[in-house]
Design brief:
single chain; mainly alpha; 0% strand; rod-shaped
Amino acid sequence: MALPRNIRNRNTKFDKNITKRGQVPLGKAAERQEESPVPKTLIIFFLVVVVGSSLVQVLNLFRGGGGPPPPLQEEGP
């Protein structure tokens, strides 16, 4: 039983493509640039916030304001 023409065309197209899988020319791969999903400005902003807050904590530690508060003293009778 003969196959319909559209199925025969698909089969020949598939048979030609089966040997080319995984072989992308370097020109096509080099043209495509991977974009980061997060913008650079947002990354820089978070870095500034993290580094700035750590600097503030270190400065407070050296200044004497970084530790826990002193315990309360009770007055005697």
